[in-house]
Design goal:
The protein has 318 residues and is an alpha/beta fold. The protein is 44% helix and 18% strand. It contains eleven helices and 13 strands. The strands form four sheets. Strands 9-8-7-10-11 form a five-stranded mixed sheet. Helix 3 (62-110) runs parallel beside helix 6 (183-194) and helix 9 packs across helix 10. The protein is elongated, with a radius of gyration of 29 Å.
Length: 318
């Protein structure tokens, strides 16, 4: 048998051939093990298949077709179960959003008019990165001024059965959350704290945590402001991305190393541990030398210092 590229054959030649699988679907099998021609499907060599003409196949026996039919039944069953699971998850997802929205409305009424005073660090852990299909697994809130833990709770997923990829990062198992409250059950405690918050300090809070919290019923005080340490630290670190025209994002571990934070027995990607690291790094970032570095790099960015076409930039005098 010779090797060819099927996509390069003349149309008339292509019409003569079908792959072994295509013939099998029609109820035919090769007349012998050596029948047919091995060809790549295209010049990119993405797949190599056995192509046969009508003269190189014969009608398959019932015994020969049995494995194929069983495999097809297995695939149909698998597709059905997957589709059923997705439908059930979609229903549960809708139920959860409704429960969260109901609780949010109650909490907004209960805590309306609360005067915010707290500066806190907030962090969450989740089953994935998309708040439209993933869930919260852990929520922590730390008072930055006093170090008091205002909230730290695991959250039981409402519609997600497993999260293997996220678990490799946050190490949160099913056993750890099986007796935890659902997010809508946790909302009264969460929103009671959020009503008192004047300043939220988070790490990539605007790009990640806020989306999940808002989706699942968090109610923020109208006067609350957000200090996103990831943006502040990116400017302090000062690694510029010409492609994006701004400083490159650095993760919390890099930030913690930069400021000399000691994790102790804790590790990153536990939400309370991340709150503590964020609080420490935020306080360090407020120190005069880091604020001076932040302002200098922001000045350089805004006047085009990092651009290839940069010509001159006025001195920054603080």
């Amino acid at each position: 048998m010779k090797n060819l590229y099927f996509s390069l054959l003349p149309d008339a030649e292509k019409a003569k051939y079908k792959t072994e699988k295509q013939w099998f679907k029609l109820g035919f099998v090769p007349v012998s093990q050596d029948a047919g021609t091995i060809m790549y499907s295209n010049r990119f060599c993405t797949g190599k298949y056995r192509y046969l003409t009508s003269e190189e196949v014969r009608k398959a026996t019932n015994e020969e077709m049995t494995p194929y039919h069983e495999e097809q039944r297995r695939k149909r069953r698998s597709r059905y179960l997957q589709s059923k699971k997705e439908r059930e998850q979609a229903i549960r997802y809708g139920e959860l959003l409704s429960l969260c929205d109901q609780q949010r409305q109650l909490d907004e009424e209960n805590y309306r008019g609360t005067i915010p005073t707290l500066t806190v660090s907030i962090d969450i852990e989740t089953t994935g990165l998309d708040f439209n299909q993933d869930e919260i697994l852990q929520v922590s809130i730390l008072d930055i001024d006093t170090g008091e833990v205002l909230l730290d709770s695991y959250v039981k997923p409402y519609f997600t059965e497993d999260w293997p990829e996220a678990r490799r990062v946050n190490h949160i198992t099913k056993e750890m959350v099986c007796n935890a409250p659902y997010i809508y059950e946790l909302l009264p405690r969460l929103n009671q704290v959020l009503a008192q918050v004047k300043t939220i300090v988070g790490y990539n809070f605007t790009g990640f945590d806020n989306g999940f919290l808002t989706r699942y019923g968090a109610s923020f005080n109208d006067e609350t402001i957000v200090e996103d340490l990831s943006n502040i630290f990116a400017a302090i670190y000062g690694e510029f991305s010409p492609k994006h025209g701004d400083f490159k994002f650095k993760n919390l571990s890099t930030c913690a190393d930069y400021f000399g934070y000691d994790w102790g027995e804790e590790t990153a990607h536990n939400s309370l541990a991340d709150c503590r690291a964020t609080a420490f790094c935020y306080q360090k970032a407020l120190e005069e030398k880091y604020q001076a570095l932040y302002q200098e790099n922001i000045h350089k960015r805004d006047c085009g210092f990092f651009d290839e076409s940069y010509d001159a930039c006025g001195d920054y005098n603080g």
